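I had to read the description of the data format several times before I understood it. For illustration, here is how one protein appears when written out as sequence plus structure tokens:
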Amino acid sequence: MAIIESAATNAGAAHDVRKKAVPGSSRRGAVGWLFILPFLVVFAAFLVAPLVYAGYLSLYTKGLATGTTFAGIDNYTRAFTDPSFLKGLWLVVRFSVVVIPLQMIVALAAALLLDEITGRLARFSRLMIFLPYAVPAVIGALMWGFLYSPTFGPLQQISGLFNVQAPFLLSHGNIFYGLLNVVTWQWSGYYMVILYAALKSIDSTIYEAARIDGAGARQIALRIKVPMISSAFALIIVFSLIGTLQFFTEPQVLGPIANGSVTPDFTPNIYSFNLAFTYAQFNYASTISFSLGFVVFLAVGVFMFATRKRGSLFT
């Protein structure tokens, strides 16, 4: 018992010595907070405050005769029964189901290929594949608008040489595929970098052991590399899911040349934008935005829960 009390006394004394040996620690902590204060101010002013204000607006309605009245959850009940919101939501869900696997396949194929290439060619290839992500989304959409043009686009020029009519990829029946191409081009390079970095973190001795056991390049890629980077796959799926459900920039930019294919309720974000800045329905536009945020949160939560239970995407 005496030994235990002595040890406790010595531990307390050592703790006091350590506290005394670090003078001014609280001052350094205050200096650290001072360094991150500009970020906190900008974060609060341009993210937290607008979210709080939009949440406040979503709880009220405003009419010419009634003025501003408290609506509670009535706006949200209206949103989840609104055909325009549900139509746009169904579009982005279908778009996510197609574009996310497509982006993963393209990014994985590029990452596996670059993992086998060495030298200057590898560096150049990584840069070229990543380059579309470095192009701002608005500029990329404008560029694809010129390429899709039914008057001077390359598809029309090539089809003119063979005297055939090329499909207009922004028409009502083809815009889904036209936007699919734009988004895949824009984001696959970014996801490739994430997967490539994950591949480079794998111990090369694992590959050597697999080759000694007789595994070929295809077996190593599919049975060793892909399962070992499953956490990176989960990361890019979350990123892609969040971005795709909030689809806005590309259809908004391409809308003027899409001959009416991009309607005011094409996606939930476009619907919210038009409600606010075309029809001045700021309260209901805020409700649509928060309703979409709830759907995004729910989708990501379900995915994270499903992958947590299984432990891996591929095992």
Remarks:
- The radius of gyration is 27 Å.
- The mean pLDDT is 85.
- The CA atoms of residues 195 and 282 lie 41 Å apart.
